[in-house]
Task: inverse folding
């Protein structure tokens, strides 16, 4: 069997391209840890495609492995290629998403401080593992917890952090954070700016053709409160099929707030 280390060996550094984003030293340590946990010798891990000497060199961080070598090692170790190259396991993502669900459940029962602690744990671990989606979900939850406890500045900071984290994502992904920020401004008495945030997002969604029903629902429902408090209606931004819903909301909320503005004709 030929020693494959000559063909795959390169100078130590960062594994780039298809091989992932981990440094050679990090991957080497990961291979060593996984091999030791499974009780493999270097020869058992290497064969039949590679040699024990190559695995030894890789574990020492002295060779930059090729994608083929990493896929072979991942298969032998019983992990995914992504987990071997990045240290992130799909199981970790599933676990973090479950933790977000638990935190949401705690928040729904009124235990905002307990929920905030759970969200903070998810945020920190997701950041350590490099899971942007789970981190943004945790930050969004922290913002909602801060709204619940009345920490409006903290809430805005969390929602803005979500928007920055998802800056390159389609607008519908950022809508929950935009809505949260608008609610924070509303609760701070900044009604017009709250409306501005919501209207701008609705206009952008409509102009871009991103007619995401859930995103629009979040924005339209959030717009009711500030419009009612200003004695206006959100009709110009609502599709015709939703206007009867606004009429019912206007009647209920408007009467309870002493609002005298009339509902405009369609």
Result:
């Amino acid at each position: 069997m030929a020693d494959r280390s000559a063909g795959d060996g390169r100078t130590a550094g960062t594994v780039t391209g298809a091989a992932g984003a981990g440094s050679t030293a990090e991957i080497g340590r990961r291979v060593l840890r996984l091999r030791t946990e499974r009780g493999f010798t270097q020869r058992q891990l290497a064969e039949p495609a590679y040699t024990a000497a190559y695995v030894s060199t890789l574990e020492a961080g002295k060779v930059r492995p090729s994608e083929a070598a990493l896929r072979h090692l991942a298969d032998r170790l019983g992990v995914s290629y992504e987990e071997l190259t990045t240290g992130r396991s799909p199981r970790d993502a599933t676990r973090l998403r479950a933790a977000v669900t638990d935190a949401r459940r705690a928040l729904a029962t009124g235990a905002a401080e307990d929920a905030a602690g759970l969200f903070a744990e998810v945020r920190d671990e997701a950041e350590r593992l490099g899971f942007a989606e789970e981190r943004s979900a945790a930050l969004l939850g922290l913002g909602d917890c801060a709204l619940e406890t009345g920490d409006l500045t903290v809430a805005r900071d969390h929602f803005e952090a979500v928007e920055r984290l998802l800056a390159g994502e389609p607008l519908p992904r950022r809508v929950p954070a935009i809505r949260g920020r608008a609610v924070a401004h509303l609760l701070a008495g900044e009604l017009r700016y709250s409306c501005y945030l919501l209207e701008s997002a609705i206009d952008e969604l409509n102009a871009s053709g991103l007619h995401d029903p859930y995103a629009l629902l979040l924005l339209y429902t959030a717009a009711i409160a500030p419009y009612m408090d200003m004695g206006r209606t959100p009709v110009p931004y609502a599709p015709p099929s939703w206007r009867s819903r606004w009429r019912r909301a206007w009647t209920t909320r408007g009467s309870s707030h002493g609002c005298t503005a009339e509902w405009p004709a369609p």
Observations:
- Residues 249 and 255 are 10 Å apart (CA to CA).
